[in-house]
Structure to design on (230 residues):
């Protein structure tokens, strides 16, 4: 099983700032098989990024993904109020599909 | 518009059974793999089980293997999860999710239902 470790656990920022979220895998993941999701309180997860860097339909371009091998990053260039949520990375290259434990992006 | 609507969540006793359903609309159901993902209260996401478009291929997390069974009825555009021998740690919101790519089951998920709560407690 590939374990995904996200850091930091909590990130406190202000609107307009840049957010950088990290996801580290216990072994190499193909860039084709790494995704990021956003989950707002009381809502279902929403796909943001797939294939490491491709934005899902309707996702604004302030969200970007990068990385390779075991280290992946989600960047939000300028935070909007609606971006404060929990973010999960996911690998789907091997079963079991695994998710990181999440990074909570909170308002400073 | 893709819509996924789960139902069947309830309070169950340890050792009991429940069947969850997920009714889909807005896409060609039998062309897409479907997955169940759960989220324990206040916790992260856990992949549970997946099924191919024609129902012939299934996958399970080790934590539910032998206790849960995934199936689908394409004539009704409905996904199921039969949950037997329930344990306290099965308590979670259960989401159904649609594969983002036609014909590929193990993939990212571009649509999710709102979830249904399963509580296992005596």
């Amino acid at each position: 099983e590939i374990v995904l470790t996200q850091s930091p656990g909590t990130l406190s920022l202000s609107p307009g700032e840049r957010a950088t979220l990290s996801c580290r895998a216990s072994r190499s993941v193909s860039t084709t098989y790494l995704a990021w999701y956003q989950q707002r309180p009381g809502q279902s997860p929403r796909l943001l990024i797939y294939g490491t860097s491709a934005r899902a339909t309707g996702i604004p371009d302030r969200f970007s993904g990068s990385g390779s091998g075991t280290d992946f990053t989600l960047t939000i260039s300028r935070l909007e109020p609606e971006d404060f949520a929990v973010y999960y990375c996911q690998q789907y290259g091997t079963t079991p599909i695994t998710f990181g434990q999440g990074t909570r992006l909170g308002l400073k | 518009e893709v819509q996924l609507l789960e139902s069947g969540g309830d309070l169950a006793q340890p050792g009991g059974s429940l069947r969850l359903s997920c009714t889909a609309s807005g896409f060609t159901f039998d062309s897409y793999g479907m997955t169940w993902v759960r989220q324990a209260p206040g916790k992260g996401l856990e992949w549970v089980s997946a099924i191919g478009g024609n129902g012939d291929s299934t996958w399970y997390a080790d934590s539910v293997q032998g206790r849960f069974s995934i199936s689908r009825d394409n004539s009704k555009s409905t996904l199921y999860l039969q949950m037997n021998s329930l344990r306290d740690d099965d308590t979670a919101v259960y989401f159904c999710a649609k594969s983002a790519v036609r014909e590929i089951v193990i993939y990212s998920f571009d649509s999710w239902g709102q979830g249904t709560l399963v509580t296992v407690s005596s």
